[in-house]
Amino acid sequence: MNIALILAKKGSKGLPGKNLIIWKGKSLLEHTIIHLKKTKLFDKIYVSTNCNKIKNVALAINCKVILRSNELAKNSNYVKSVNHACNHIKHFKTITIPMVVQPLRKFNIFKLMLNKLKNKKLDSVVTVEKFESSTAWIFQSYKGKLKKFKFINYKNEIGRREDLVIINNAVVSFKFSSWKKSNGITPWPYLGKNISLIRQKILNKNLKIDINDIEDKNWLSYLTKKFKWKKLY
């Protein structure tokens, strides 16, 4: 079975209740569920949550709910929460996880990912975005000062790199076999080692939305008025 899994918890350090923000008449969670249903690619849609409001929204749209504890819902336990859901589902061919707070995704993104996963040599497919910088520019903020990361080789890392990308977690898909082995990249072992990528195309990099604080929410509202989107999918 091809499974869609949505991880949506209550609370957030940056913007509490962000998964249930109303946009164009529906919550961000509802938009994601509707998108998944319209593709007709998934046998079942699960929502993993520690929130009764989110549970009720999911059940109202005929999704299955996996309840997790507040401890499991902590950011530091993200991988554990994925494993918790996979253990609950038990039997699946692939699992696709879309990020609710990144709602501006192409309609065919899920089809593109599942088509790539048909390659027997692949463990997973992830969405990425360009890292427009040099690794030599990366510092850690520590007690009001800058601290260098020790694991980067700075000798040849001066100018911008064109080959670097970051996994943005907008959507990830992985196989049962990959999750079962859990022998992949850090910090997402369930993605395996043979990972393909998809670059989502948007009109402009400044139109990327990842809602984590009130400024992100306001930016989404501004863009909605500016572009007057009539239909999302």
Structural description of this entry:
- 26% of the residues lie in helices and 24% in strands.
- The protein is built from 6 helices and 11 strands.
- It has helices at 28-39, 52-60, 78-89, 109-116, 176-181, 214-227; strands at residues 2-7, 22-23, 26-27, 44-49, 64-67, 94-98, 124-130, 139-142, 145-148, 165-175, 195-199.
- The strands form 3 sheets. The chain has a 7-stranded mixed sheet with strand order 5-4-1-6-10-7-11, sandwiched between helices. Strands 2-3 form a two-stranded antiparallel sheet. Strands 8-9 form a two-stranded antiparallel sheet.
Strand content: 15-25%
Assembly state here?
A: single chain
N→C terminal distance: 24 Å
**Individual helix count:** 6
Radius of gyration over all CA atoms, rounded: 18 Å
Brief overview:
The protein has 233 residues and is α/β, with parallel strands linked by helices. It is 26% helix and 24% strand.
Annotate the secondary structure layout.
Layout: E1 2-7, E2 22-23, E3 26-27, H1 28-39, E4 44-49, H2 52-60, E5 64-67, H3 78-89, E6 94-98, H4 109-116, E7 124-130, E8 139-142, E9 145-148, E10 165-175, H5 176-181, E11 195-199, H6 214-227
Parallel strand pairs: 1-4, 1-6, 4-5, 7-11
Antiparallel strand pairs: 2-3, 6-10, 7-10, 8-9
Q: What are the salient characteristics of this protein?
A:
6 helices; two-stranded antiparallel ribbon; alpha/beta
